[in-house]
Design goal:
The complex is a heterodimer of chains A (551) and B (322).
Chain A: E1 18-26, E2 35-44, E3 49-53, H1 60-68, E4 76-84, E5 87-88, H2 94-100, E6 105-108, H3 122-132, H4 138-151, H5 157-162, H6 170-182, E7 188-192, H7 200-217, E8 220-225, H8 228-234, E9 237-242, E10 245-251, H9 252-257, H10 262-270, E11 286-300, E12 307-321, E13 325-329, H11 336-343, E14 351-356, E15 359-360, H12 366-375, E16 376-379, H13 393-403, H14 408-421, H15 438-450, E17 456-460, H16 468-485, E18 488-493, H17 496-502, E19 505-510, E20 513-519, H18 520-525, H19 530-537, H20 542-550
Parallel strand pairs in A: 3-8, 3-9, 6-7, 7-8, 13-18, 13-19, 16-17, 17-18
Antiparallel strand pairs in A: 1-2, 1-4, 4-5, 9-10, 11-12, 11-14, 14-15, 19-20
Helix pairs in contact in A: 3-4, 3-6, 4-6, 6-7, 13-14, 13-15, 14-15, 15-16
Chain B: H1 2-29, H2 34-41, H3 47-57, H4 63-75, E1 81-82, E2 87-88, H5 89-124, H6 129-143, H7 146-160, H8 178-216, H9 219-226, H10 231-268, H11 274-283, H12 287-315, H13 317-321
Antiparallel strand pairs in B: 1-2
Helix pairs in contact in B: 1-12, 2-3, 5-6, 5-8, 5-10, 5-12, 6-8, 7-8, 8-10, 9-10, 10-11, 10-12, 11-12
Classes of the chains: A alpha/beta (551), B mainly alpha (322).
Chain lengths: 551, 322
């Protein structure tokens, strides 16, 4: 995907379609700050895409929800106006707002997996938009649904119309949500992180689709994202928000190339760069030898049912050196997580061999397996569900060493030391996980993995759930600890930017097989496989990276 | 679909066989047998007379022979003969089964219908007086023993107010026919059915309410609001349909319990169903009747479960394709 041609700057005489003036949205008492959105003014013009950028909690979604009149319970717009044309939406009754929703302002959401009712056919859900506004006959609604599905580029729209959401992929579902939002040709489209949950190639397709529809219909689009790569790809104008306030706004080019505000500069600097200098590749002594490992999921298959087989990992081989960081990248369903779990023996492999310093680990049992778990540790993706909420952080970290015979006092001392090592306060040991932010919890996860002094750490999407600036800090921490302790790291991620930043070598997986493996800079600058190339080309904002390199 | 049905019916048959064997063995573990009870009632404990009775009932044969002959006759839908009542067991049960089915099904419909309705109202008025009232009443029903409700209901509606008949299936020797008879039976049915359904109704109220509040937080409800749909339609089409799935699952499991719960209610209200038949047979060590009741109620529970699974496949498209 190439960078779109620049739309001319909005003429100053043009009248904005939406004008948000001095909007303040109050949070319920006891929240971490009084206002989610604090005295914010934004103008949106027909035919332009406005990106609202900021980290989680910056108030970017709240502004959009205020526009739709869909603020969560207890949250209220207390000051300012939201003008659509010359009517103030904030003064509208719920009844009048219902008429605006769907008809004049459409909305797309972040999670395509959960944005559709699982029990209703796709066509019925699209037809509902017409029904809500009392338009067309039921038969016409169904016909329009199929037309809309064609327009958003679903293959076989007739069949898709009769499908249930679970029968569609994430990207397809997002297309359905877009079809729904556009059904009544609204003047304004709000897209709240619509591509965050998607794979990079699907993301590129959806971005292109939104761009295309926006141009065709001359809509004003508010595109909310935390990803500056996406901004570079799609924005005409940019608004940067921090803690409910706008810190910078202007045309996309100006904000991206010459950010004025310190916060914007920091956010931009935190984006992992794609352009890499070749890293020094010391001769790593081999530590882990993986040969033809295979993992097949068998489902169904009762007494009377046929068996369904899915090859999650197909004959993957590689060597991990001592002190090396190996990235495993691929789209969802490519088998990268299954591979990681097999290596840690959280899941049995069906065939193949994994040797650690010459010793087979796939058939270890009992005490030997316990000893293996001590040497190979895992860091999980979700910092919110991977820590036991009822156990103090110190206890979570100390549990491993205690299980291996360390005295409780000594283990707690180590837990405190580790917490300091990962950049937290030693006093954190007595607190519970819910008292920490996402980034802090992931640091705790790292401390927990380190407690047993492992030699190999498998990090499965360890930074995917974090904001860019936090992501950068956690990556730095991981890299530093790895070097200090001489650890080997297997870093599983769908985010190629992150892989580019931290890995010595990168392995690309597709449908369970390893299709390419090599030094990171080589994979990114001269990929051999077409699939790898398509993955890299789909990375949002890549054109900017390349331009930056040329300059 | 047909394959699914055949599989499930096949599995049900295996389960039924296991239940029959298990029940048979359990009953023979208990001390005493029909011959002893009959001899005792006749006021004579002559060992020869008892032995003669046992030979007559086939009780003197080895246990495995008795088991085999019982299981094979059950397979041919012959549940044996009740020597106490001088009637085939199947006839006895078929006489009583309609009353029990009527009672259980009415209780099931009442509990599920009212439970889901009240739960929906409570959820859509969360924190308001209607919610508090419904939740409190549900908790009361949930916590109070069935028989106490049964007795109080009889005292209040039958003895004190004289609105409803307090016992029996219909007015004896009334000579009612047609519609009159239906109304008469319905009047007799009200109290036992409601009492039997109360506990489960409370369970469904609480579950529907919790489930709806949970579903309300889902993204697709927000999507529905973004379309501009009216709240009532969102509640019905998007929230309730999804929220009811766990309730259906539970209702299917509990339907079996209704049959069991009926024993108590049938006793209190003198309702001539198989619950009371079983109770009498137990006291008289009437093995064949007892076993027959077990087999029939097990078959009913299995049938209820099958119907639930079918219903579940109708409401949830995700189940259909797996």
């Amino acid at each position: 995907m190439t960078h779109h041609t620049d739309t001319p700057a909005a003429p100053s005489a043009a009248i904005p379609i939406v004008r948000i003036e001095g909007l303040s949205v109050a949070l319920p008492e006891g929240a971490d700050r009084p206002y989610a959105v604090d005295h914010t003014s934004i103008d949106m013009y027909a035919g332009r895409i406005l990106c609202v950028v900021g980290e989680s909690g910056s108030g970017k979604s709240m502004s959009a929800n205020a526009m739709m009149g869909l603020l969560p319970e207890g949250v209220r717009a207390v000051k300012g106006r939201i003008l659509l044309g010359d009517e103030n939406l904030l003064a509208f009754s719920e009844e009048k707002m219902r008429d605006i929703r769907g008809r004049r302002i459409g909305m797309i959401f972040q999670e395509p997996m959960s944005a559709l009712n699982p029990l209703m056919r796709v066509a019925d859900q699209i037809a509902e938009v017409f029904e809500a506004h009392g338009l067309l006959t039921p038969a016409e609604r169904q016909a329009r649904a199929v037309e809309l599905l064609t327009e958003v580029g679903l293959p076989d729209p007739k069949r898709a119309a009769r499908a249930y959401p679970f029968q569609l992929s994430g990207g397809q579902r997002q297309r359905v949500v877009i079809a729904m939002a556009l059904a009544l040709e609204p003047e304004v489209l709000i897209a709240d992180e619509p591509t965050t949950a998607l794979d990079v190639t699907t993301q590129a397709q959806i971005l292109a689709l939104i761009r295309k529809l926006q141009v065709e219909r001359g809509m004003a689009v508010m595109f909310i994202t935390h990803d500056f790569g996406v901004v570079a790809e799609i924005a005409d104008d940019v608004v940067v928000m921090q803690c409910g306030q706008i810190v910078e706004q202007g045309p996309a080019r100006a904000v991206l190339d010459a950010p004025q505000h310190d916060y914007t500069q920091r956010l931009l600097a935190a984006i992992p760069r794609l352009t890499l200098a070749p890293r020094a590749m010391p001769d790593f002594a081999p530590l882990l030898e993986v040969r033809d490992i295979r993992r097949t999921y068998v489902s169904g298959g009762g007494l009377f049912r046929p068996v369904r087989r899915v090859d999650a990992v197909r004959d993957v081989s590689f060597t991990l050196g001592k002190g090396e960081t190996l990235g495993i990248v691929g789209e969802s369903g490519s088998g990268k997580s299954s591979l990681g779990r097999c290596l840690v023996r959280l899941q049995p492999a069906d065939a193949g061999s994994v040797t650690m310093e010459g010793r087979e680990i796939l058939d270890l049992k009992g005490e030997d397996l316990r000893q293996l778990h001590r040497r190979v540790q895992m860091i999980f993706q979700d910092p919110f569900s991977s820590l036991n909420p009822r156990i103090t952080v110190g206890r979570t970290i100390a549990d491993g060493p205690i299980a291996f015979g360390m005295s409780r006092a000594e283990a707690m001392d180590r837990a405190r030391a580790l917490l300091e090592r990962v950049g937290l306060n030693a006093a954190a040991a007595t607190r519970y996980p819910h008292e920490f932010s996402g980034g802090q919890r992931q640091r705790i996860g790292i401390a927990r993995a380190l407690a047993l002094e492992p030699e190999v750490i498998v990090a499965d999407e360890a930074v995917s759930a974090l904001d860019v600036s936090i992501q950068a800090q956690v990556l730095e921490l991981l890299d530093e600890i790895k070097r200090d302790l001489g650890l080997s790291l297997i870093f599983i991620t769908h985010d190629l930017r992150v892989a580019a930043q931290i890995c010595d070598r990168v392995m690309v997986m597709q449908q369970g097989a390893c299709i390419e493996i090599g030094p990171a800079h080589q994979i990114f600058s001269a990929p051999e496989q077409a699939y790898t190339r398509s993955l890299i080309e789909a990375i949002p904002g890549r054109a900017r990276d390349l331009a930056g390199q040329a300059a | 679909m047909l394959g699914f049905l055949l599989t499930r019916v096949g599995k049900a048959a295996v389960v039924l066989l296991c239940i029959t064997v298990l029940n048979f063995l359990l009953i023979h573990l208990a001390p005493g047998d029909p011959a002893m009870v009959m001899a005792g009632e006749a006021g004579e404990a002559d060992p020869e007379f008892i032995a003669q009775l046992r030979a007559q009932f086939g009780l003197d044969r080895p246990l495995y022979v008795q088991l085999w002959s019982y299981v094979s006759s059950v397979a041919q839908l012959d549940l044996g003969y009740s020597y106490r009542q001088n009637l085939p067991v199947l006839d006895l049960i078929l006489q009583r089964l309609p009353a029990t089915l009527l009672l259980s099904l009415s209780a099931f419909v009442i509990s599920l219908g009212l439970g889901v309705l009240a739960g929906t109202i409570a959820a859509s008025r969360q924190g308001k007086p209607a919610d508090t009232l419904i939740s409190t009443i549900a908790l009361l029903f949930y916590a109070t023993p069935l028989f106490w409700f049964a007795l109080m209901a009889v005292l209040l509606f039958s003895v004190k107010l004289d609105w409803l008949p307090g016992y029996g299936f219909e007015t004896i020797r009334s000579g009612y026919t047609g519609m009159e008879r239906v109304l008469d039976i319905a009047a007799h049915l009200v109290m036992p059915a409601f009492t039997l359904g109360l506990f489960l109704m409370a369970v469904y109220v609480r579950m529907t309410r919790a489930s709806m509040l949970e579903v309300n937080k889902h993204d697709y409800v927000r999507t529905a609001r973004a379309k501009g749909l009216r709240p009532a339609l969102i509640q019905r089409r998007h929230v309730l349909r999804n929220a009811i799935l766990p309730v259906v699952t539970l209702a299917g499991l509990q339907a079996g319990q209704l049959v069991g719960g009926a024993v108590l209610i049938e006793t209190v209200f003198a309702w001539p169903g198989i619950g009371r038949l079983m109770f009498e047979a137990l006291a008289q060590r009437d093995y064949n009747v007892l076993l027959g009741v077990f087999v029939v109620s097990a078959a009913m529970v299995l049938m209820f479960n099958l119907v639930t699974d079918l219903a579940y496949r109708l409401v949830d498209p995700r189940i259909r394709t797996t």
